Structures are given as C-alpha cells and as structure tokens.
Amino acid sequence: MTYESLGHLPRAPLVFSLAMIEFAPVPGMAEYAPAILEEVRQNYPDSLDYTVNSMKVSVRGGAGGFSMENEEVPQWRAGNAEGDFGFVFGRDRVVFHTTSYKHFDDFAEKIHPILETISRIAKIDHSRSIGIRHIDNIHAIDGLDYSQILKPGYLCPPQNGGLSPLQSRVEFIYRSELGQLFARCYELQDHPRVPQDLFQLAEQLPRSGLMEQVSVRFVMADTDHIYAPRALEKFNLDRVLNLLDRLHKQNSLGFRAMVTEEAIAAWKKE
After folding, report:
1. Please, are residues 234 and 207 in contact by the beta-carbon 8 Å criterion?
2. Structural domain includes residue 168
3. Given this model, what pLDDT does residue 139 score?
4. Which residue, 260, 258, 253, is CA-closest to 132?
5. Concatenated DSSP letters for 64-108?
6. What is the pLDDT of residues 172-200, one digit of tens each?
7. In this model, does residue 250 exceed pLDDT 90?
8. For residue 231, what are the CA distances in angstroms to 19, 92, 105, 174?
9. Is residue 4 part of a domain?
C-alpha cells in the first residue's frame, strides 16, 4: 500500500507523533503479551511491562450511589535500539509513538508488522476508535517571531501597561468527514516538550529528551484527529492503516492552517 505525502518539511518543529488503535477488550492480553514481545524482539529489543493507575467508577445497588477506586492497569511496551520508535499496548488498545516522524508511509511501514502480530496472537476481531496526533515545538526562526509564525487567535493578545505573555492555552474542535479534529496551542516556559497527558507515554522513550524542561518561551502546537465509530467494527489491518492515512492528511492540514505561509517556507529550507 502506498500513501500520498503532503510534503516533507526538513526543518519542521515536529517532536512527537502518535497513532492509537482501540479494539474490543482482550481479557487474556497478559497471557498473549510475552509471545507478542518475543515475536518483535529482534527489531524492538527494549521491552518491559508496567502498570498505570486508572480511576474505576462503579454503581452500587440500592442507595449506595457511585464508588470510585484506583485500579492498576497492566501495560506492555517495546522500543527500537535507537530509542526513537516504540509502541505500548494493553487489553484494549495499542499506541505507536516516535520522535523521528518524516512521512506517513515510513510510519505505516513500522506499524504494519507490529499490528499484524498483536492482532493475530491476541485474536483481535473488532476495532473501535482510531487516532493520530502530532506535537510541534515552535520557536522563532529565520527572524520570524511568534506573531509572524502563528495565525491570529493562537497567541496571547497584546496588552498595555508593560504586560508580557507568560502562558496561554487555546483549543478549537472541528467536525471532519471521519470524526473530530482538535487543534490546541500553548505558550509555555520551563515545561517539557509534550503536554501533561502525554508525560507517561513520553517516558517510555527515555532517550527522546521529551521530558526535558524547555527553559525558554516556546509555543506547543497539538493536533489530534480521531475516528470514533458508534459501534465496534470488524478489524481489518489494511482498512485501519488507510483510516490512519486519511486522519494524518487532515491532521497535517489542520496544523498548516494554524501557521503562516512564511513559517512553512522557513521550515521547507534544507
């Protein structure tokens, strides 16, 4: 399968890319995980299992109301020897993540054999939500300041009285042909390179530098395109990758709609 590229930006500010595929829960995933990790071990030797805390909400009978408790959810992760690509999976999803994203076809080429292995060994028959997400760290470049890189509405508006921007967060949500596109923009300082909800995933690529504090002011762009059907769908590997390709194209266009032509031209330079 081949994929159309929107064009590579050699100086792109992209620092982290993710693809998520949710599937019907696999109660016996803990039994399948060792075989999955063993099959991919030659290409992804850096593996381990760990747990994440999740809030479990249940309804008691009668007048008991709701009960909430922390639940430890098992996860498994594996990464390549270079430390720039890996995946994390659990009983109902797999997330692929990389710090070396250039083209979708290269990303899909890595995803395909791993997803085939997981779906075959864990007997995955149905998929659910599918998404792709990109995190960009934008800095001034080629004499362009932030107001010349970002379009209006994504930055702190100027104020009088000697006030200078410190921090901001804006989010726009769009309905797309496939689902919903989220376009978020943050002005930050003394913050890791990724938003807080991705800290735990970023830590699974420990040599990536994603969790290092950026001491200077920078702008983080976070674009997230999600396909979320109303019901489970029959799992088909080629269809999943085709959906990811379509999601990525609109996601890339969503990012490019946030920035100016001058910024795109600067990032295109070799």
Report:
1. no
2. yes
3. 96
4. 253
5. --EEEEEEEEEEEEEE-TTSSEEEEE-SSEEEEEES----HHHHH
6. 999 999 999 999 999 999 999 999 999 98
7. yes
8. 20, 15, 28, 21
9. no
Distances in whole angstroms, Cα of residue 204 to Cα of each of 76, 207, 266: 10, 9, 32
**In-domain check, residue 167:** yes
Gyration radius (Cα) of the chain, Å: 20
Q: CA-to-CA distance for 182 and 202, rounded, in angstroms?
A: 20
**Total structural domains in the chain?**
1
Angle at 222 between CA 157 and CA 154, to 5 degrees: 15
The backbone torsions φ and ψ at residue 242, rounded to the nearest 5 degrees and listed phi first, read -65, -40
pLDDT in tens, 147-170: 999 999 999 888 877 787 778 999
Q: What are phi and psi of 176, to 5 degrees?
A: -115, 180
- Judge whether 262 and 7 are in contact, CB under 8 Å: no
Residue 25 sits in which domain range?
Answer: 14-268
Long-range CB contact pairs, 145-152, < 8 A, 24+: 146/187, 146/219, 148/260, 148/262, 148/263, 149/219, 149/259, 149/260, 149/262, 149/263, 150/185, 150/219, 150/258, 150/259, 150/260, 150/263, 151/257, 151/258, 151/259, 151/260
Question: Mean pLDDT of all residues in the chain?
Answer: 89
**If we measure between CA atoms, which residue out of 13, 2, 16 comes closest to residue 211?**
16
Residue range 28-38, pLDDT digits in tens: 999 999 999 99
Residue 26: inside a domain, yes or no?
A: yes
**Any residues with CB less than 8 A from the CB of 230 and at least 6 apart, and which?**
none
Nearest residue to 46 (alpha-carbon basis) of 203, 204, 208, 210:
204
Judge whether residue 66 has pLDDT over 80: no
Which pLDDT score, from 0 to 100, does residue 58 have? Answer: 47
